[in-house]
Write a structure and sequence with these properties.
Number of helices: 9
Number of strands: 4
Mean pLDDT: 76
Shape: globular
Distance between the termini: 57 Å
Strand order of the largest sheet: 2-1-3-4
Strand content: 5-15%
Largest sheet: 4 strands, mixed
Helix content: 40-55%
Order of helices and strands: HHEHEHHEEHHHH
Length: about 170
């Protein structure tokens, strides 16, 4: 309910996660390298070993003409230092999005953040947060994430998928 004198909150605003702790840059990182890196509205960490994840990142990149989103392979050596608040194990299972304030969202909620950042995709963000749809989208996302390596067995032939809990299937 809206009370007179208080600002209205949209369902998208109300769904935002609580502020995450913002970590200072590591002492060992060279200041010039940290200053040189532009801060995107959103940084999306995806599994670069996953063909589906790479294709999704490329789709976002094509639609992001204003460069609001930094797409970064979670296997990039800079990730742990730049994003110490990201749980690496969780990031191997679910896409992670980190906003400019350091808040982390995962999976379907990360896709909603992508939708907020891209012009023309706001309806996606709204739909992903709608009651019922959010739960269904979360279930579908989790199922796809668990099975993504099964659909690309060539990528798993070297055993790299085993590190993600998805053993290579040679059946």
């Amino acid at each position: 309910l809206h009370t007179i004198g208080q600002p209205r909150r949209s369902s998208l605003t109300a769904a935002r996660p609580a502020r995450a702790t913002i970590f200072p840059p590591p002492e060992s990182a060279p200041v010039s390298a940290l200053e040189a890196a532009p801060v995107a509205e959103l940084t999306v960490l995806y599994d670069g070993n996953c063909a589906l994840c790479r294709a999704s990142a490329e789709r976002v990149r094509r639609h992001d003409r204003r460069h609001r989103i930094e797409l970064l392979d979670l296997h990039d050596p800079s990730v742990p230092a730049r994003f110490p608040q990201v749980d690496q194990e969780k990031a191997l299972r679910l896409m992670q999005a980190v906003d400019a304030e350091g808040r982390v969202t995962s999976g379907v909620d990360a896709w909603a953040e992508v939708g907020r950042a891209l012009p023309g995709w706001r309806a996606v963000a709204w739909l992903l947060h709608a009651p019922g749809i959010h739960a269904l989208a979360g279930w579908v996302y989790d199922w796809v994430a668990r099975n993504r390596y099964r659909w690309n067995r060539e990528a798993c032939a070297d055993g790299s998928c085993a590190m993600h809990g998805h053993p290579s299937e040679n059946r």
